Amino acid sequence: MFNYYLKLGWLSLRANPLLSLLMVAAIGVGIGACMTILTVNYTMSGNPIPHKSDQLYHVQLDSWDANDPGEDGYNPPDQVTYNDAMALMNGAPGFRQVASNRSGLVLEPEGDDERPFSVDVRNTWADFFPMFDTPFLYGSGWDDTADTTREPVVVLSRELNERVFGGEDSVGRTVRMNGLNFRVVGVLDEWMVVPKFYDVTNGPFNETEEAFIPFNLAVDQELPRNGNTNCWKPPEGDGFEAFKNSECVWIQFWAELRDEQEKAAFSNWLDAYVAEQKELGRFPRPLNNRVLAVMEWMEDRQVVEDDAQVMLGLSFLFLVVCLLNTIGLLLAKFMRKTGDISVRRALGARRSDLFRQHMVEAGLIGLGGGVLGIALTWLGLRGIEVLFGEFVENLVGLDWVMMLTAVGLAIVSALVAGLYPTWRATRIMPASQLKAQ
Amino acid sequence: MQFGPIWRALMRNKTGAILIALQVAVTMAIMVNAISIIQTRAEAMARPSGIDEPNIFYISSIGFNDAFNERVAVEEDLAALRAMPGVVDALQTNSVPLSGGGWSMGLQTEPGDDMDGVGVAVYFVDDHALDTYDLELVAGEFFSPTDIEWREGSSSTWPDRTVITVAMAEALFGEDEWRSGVGKTVYINNNEPMTVTGIIDRMQAAWNGWDGVERTMLVPQRTLFGSSRYIIRAEPGLRDELMPQVEEMLAQSNKDRIVRGLRTMEETRERSYRGDASMIKLLMFTIGLLLLITALGIVGLASFSVSRRTKQIGTRRALGATRADIAGYFMSENLLISGMGVLLGAALTVGLNMWMVDAFDLDRMEVWLVPAAMGVLLVVGQLAVFGPARRASSVPPAVATRTV
């Protein structure tokens, strides 16, 4: 029967191509608009590291000013001070833990003709790589002895390796940055994390860095930092030592905690640490440590832009308009077929048969709308890319989840839109219509 | 035209009318709120930065090895830049208006850790700032060459004088009292005094979304941060010609640094507001598409209703109704339906706006937008129904007799 209804539906659509096209277009445009915006939102709110996002925790300590609470009056600062980062690295009981910050160095390629260029760098620890599951093309991360010996080692991104070494296995070779010779220990494969959860402070939709070097080495050598730095009181005295010992926050701290026990132990340790610091006269504000898992942290930072959410709301209303339109057009269409319907009823078709038949027809329109919708979504995303440029580069990919969602949404929309017209169609009294013929 | 009979006829077949009215209502809610967002964005984009944007460009210089003597480099660079033909003036600074990255501090009128400060954007400049940015000094005096000091990267202390914008002076000393700020002492880092020696009319901070975007302070220091920005103001018309020359000159004159980020102020503004500009385009496109879809819906349903009433129309024509009467009937019918739609739409619009203001911290819409949108939608409805109505009016009276 289903196939027969399909055939009937197809014939009915063919019978009035302009009206059918209008309906398909209305649904398609609505779906296209919705899915374009939904895709951007979906990527923005995506889980950047799904397989272990509930084991990775962002750590915050409320070291802020007693007189002037941090963000929104109650949130602890989003980064930690150097002293706290080092205390946590040395003492906290996390399975793995990493303090890192953003930096930029100047790389001098070999050969006199090549001009030096600047490179995005992350100062970090050996645990960074296993903790965030970075994919390696060649070599690996550094041994954790390099963290303590401050050995100049570097992990390059795939792109930087291509630029400097033409893409060959460069493990063991040397790159010169800011006057220091770094030994390459590993080259990452393509590594995209969207949002870039491990450093939301310096831009949740930035690219991952081009080079990774030991944090302690960068501090020792006083290499430049270029990430966000926030101070509630000035360093006591001049010089880098004073800055290190200041209450300025500039380091992102992450811990890998495999289960509730580890998490509880870690939190307890933090509380004890803050209590101890309070005795030394630091941490003037009430105890307010935060240990948030990846997705909690994304939520807390509201990485989905307000603009995207406003657009999402508007685009769903847009879909509503398109559906109202479709309901009207379907109604017009089915009401024109009163003769057909009456004949079928008179020949013995039940109301439920007619209902199913017309729902199939509505579903067909939805399918058409969905396919058109995918095409329009693709176009819409290209449009957004052109409009917003590099800011959204990582946000405008169309994956199969979204494609299936588009078709599904279109069919469901069409069926919903078809309900009332179909119900009306099945209510037609055959006798009244047949008499007039 | 008599609305009575039209209304009663409408009531006998409500569904189509309700659908159109709903569609008009939702369209209106989206339209008005989108326009309200567009207005806010456009206003923000229209705020002047206070500097001579068309002629200013900038470039960064970053030293990367031990041989780099920043103090010497900055002095040589500035001398060379200022001597270049076509350059009006140039200076070294830490940040650029609207560029997104910069330095902020708090100033307060009384010393003390527990006093509230007013957030302010900090630009380190020298005595050439008025000329380089084309700023207007409205009170007091500007820095003299002897005021200019050097600032180390790790320095935490501040010089004894500053020049602030009118907006900052208003925030510190009161709206009408800002002129009195000249000569007064303000405190940075809670306790460190600085004297306000002058006030400039306007200069924006680096962050266009900050509510204090016009609160700016100029500090008479040249920086030794390892990387610095040169702001260069060209003579009108010479900017594009000068840019590559400046880049080449700086790249060649000192091999211990790299130069990068050559960019005009115009491009900076464009990048700064790119999100807003795109949002405006996106919303305009949405509004256009929506009006089109609603209009098509009206055309579709009106055509349907015309074709269903062909016989009725024929009868009316046979009984003496003119073509204009028939067209008028359908036009009035649409006016009634759209009228209901826009009334419902007004309520929906206000509701949606209240929700958006609440959820996204948006500005409340301007009230006049509601009647304006009602008018627009009524006109769109009339235009859309015009085609079907004309077709209806051309139904010949003979049709009435044919199928009886």
Word description of this protein:
The complex is a heterodimer of chains A (437) and B (404). Chain A has 437 residues and is of the alpha+beta class. Chain A folds into two domains: 2-45 and 305-436, no CATH class; 50-301, no CATH class. Helix content of chain A is 50%, strand content 15%. A six-stranded mixed β-barrel of chain A has the order 3-4-9-6-8-7. Chain A is elongated. The mean pLDDT of chain A is 88. By secondary structure, chain B is an alpha+beta fold. Chain B folds into two domains: 3-46 and 274-402, no CATH class; 53-104 and 114-152 and 201-271, no CATH class. Chain B is built from twelve helices and twelve strands. In chain B, the strands form two sheets. Chain B has a six-stranded mixed barrel with strand order 3-4-10-7-9-8. Chain B has a four-stranded antiparallel β-sheet with strand order 2-11-1-12. In chain B, helix 2 runs antiparallel to helix 8 (274-308) and helix 8 (274-308) runs parallel beside helix 11. Chain B starts with a helix and ends with a helix. Classes of the chains: A alpha+beta (437), B alpha+beta (404). At the A-B interface, helix 2, strand 3, helix 8, helix 11 and helix 13 of A face helix 2, helix 8 and helix 10 of B.
What are the SSEs and their pairings?
The complex is a heterodimer of chains A (437) and B (404).
Chain A: H1 2-15, H2 17-44, E1 56-60, E2 80-81, H3 82-91, E3 96-108, E4 117-124, H4 128-131, E5 136-139, H5 145-149, E6 153-156, H6 158-165, E7 174-177, E8 180-188, E9 211-214, H7 215-220, H8 240-244, E10 249-256, H9 260-279, E11 290-293, H10 294-301, H11 306-336, H12 338-346, H13 351-388, H14 400-426, H15 430-436
Parallel strand pairs in A: 4-9, 6-8
Antiparallel strand pairs in A: 1-10, 1-11, 2-10, 3-4, 3-7, 3-10, 5-8, 6-9, 7-8
Helix pairs in contact in A: 1-13, 2-11, 2-13, 2-14, 11-14, 12-15, 13-14
Chain B: H1 3-12, H2 14-46, E1 56-63, H3 70-83, E2 87-93, E3 103-108, E4 118-125, H4 129-133, E5 137-140, E6 149-152, E7 161-165, H5 166-173, E8 185-188, E9 192-200, E10 216-224, E11 227-234, H6 239-253, E12 257-264, H7 265-272, H8 274-308, H9 310-318, H10 323-360, H11 369-393, H12 399-402
Parallel strand pairs in B: 4-10, 6-10, 7-9
Antiparallel strand pairs in B: 1-11, 1-12, 2-11, 3-4, 3-8, 5-9, 7-10, 8-9
Helix pairs in contact in B: 1-10, 2-8, 2-10, 2-11, 8-11, 10-11
